[in-house]
Every structure is written in structure tokens, then in C-alpha cells.
Amino acid sequence: MKNALYAVALGLLISATSYAQAVKGYASLPKDSLTQKVSYSGVVSVPGATQTALFGRASEWIARQTDRAPGEPTADAGSGMQLVRLRYKQAPQGFTDTHANLYYFAVAIYTKEGRFRYQVDDVTYQNENPALTSEDVKNRVPLEKYATAKPSKNTVAAMADLDKHLREVVASLTQSMGGAKAW
């Protein structure tokens, strides 16, 4: 009986530690100061570039994206704004993780003379495991809900991998626009 109590106590301790790590993995992602949702944003200088040229470069970058989410990109040449939704299919994050995670996110690009602003946000998660029937399999859920409700070391690895991917998206955009490195 004493051994059983020790086993239960150890199990609770491990569970609490896993949850804290999962939340920590999410906590390390950049957040919008107002909404506290995951958001990557910045302004990049491109000296000598016109708004028209930057708008064209943004259009070309969007056209090269192969992992677009369903729906057409939005573009408004007058305001210099373009919006595209992309997706990222993440490989399983560990030996016990048997399915891919699917993330959707928005990339907004705002062009002005000599600079552009990017914002990557509205990140959602969808589980691709067909054997499960939970809400996150049927529907996309906000990343915040997934990342703080799945206490496992796989979630920590998933958040680190997602962060790396989103930073690569920003770096690719910045390079295509002719700006300096964003990271």
C-alpha cells in the first residue's frame, strides 16, 4: 500500500512538471502586448525601395508559398496591404507522438516607401490523428488553447519547432523584400 501511494505521488509530480514545461514552451513564443496571443511582427527598412516595388515583391513572395491554406490572398495596392493564410504540417515530435500537427497562421504585409511591416498571427492548431474524435481534431483551435492544455514534453518540442518555422517564414519574407535579417 505504501508503494502504491509513492507511485501515485510520483505520477502527480511528473504530471505537474510536464504541464509546467508545456506552458513554458508556449510562454517563450512572442506575444502581442494587447491580446497576449502569439504574434511575430516588425518593421524592416529597405532603403530606396518604393511602395510599388515592395508591394510587387510581397506579391511574388506570396505566390511562391506552397503551403497556403484554403482561400485566396487579399491585396489592396492602394493601402499597400497584403494578407495570406499559410499552414505548416509538423512532423511527430517524439517516439510516442504518432501523428502530425497542423498549424494555420496569417501573414500580413504592409508596404510603405522604404520599409515594410509584417505581422504573423492568428495561429490555430488542428490535430491530424484520425483515430481521435476530440474537439481539436474536428476543428481548429487557437494555439493558446492547445499549447496550455496538452501537458507533455511533446508540446514543448512542438512549440520550439513551430517557433523555428515561423521565424523562417519571416526570414524568407525579409530576404525576398530586400531587407536586412529580421532575427
Describe the structure.
The protein has about 180 residues and is α+β, with helices and mostly antiparallel strands. It has a single domain (about 1-175), classed as Alpha-D-Glucose-1,6-Bisphosphate, Chain A, domain 4. Helices cover about 40% and strands about 25% of the residues. The protein contains 5 helices and 6 strands, in the order αβαββββαβαα. The chain has helices at about 1-25, 50-65, 135-140, 145-150, 155-175, and strands at about 40-45, 75, 80-90, 100-110, 115-125, 140. Strands 1, 2, 3, 4, 5 and 6 form a 6-stranded antiparallel sheet that branches. β2 and β3 form a beta hairpin. α1 packs antiparallel against α4. The model is unreliable at about 5-20 (pLDDT under 50). Keywords: Signal. This is DUF4468 domain-containing protein.
Topology:
Blueprint: H1 2-27, E1 40-45, H2 51-64, E2 74-76, E3 81-90, E4 101-112, E5 115-127, H3 135-138, E6 141-142, H4 143-149, H5 153-177
Antiparallel strand pairs: 1-5, 2-3, 3-4, 4-5, 5-6
Helix pairs in contact: 1-4, 1-5, 2-5
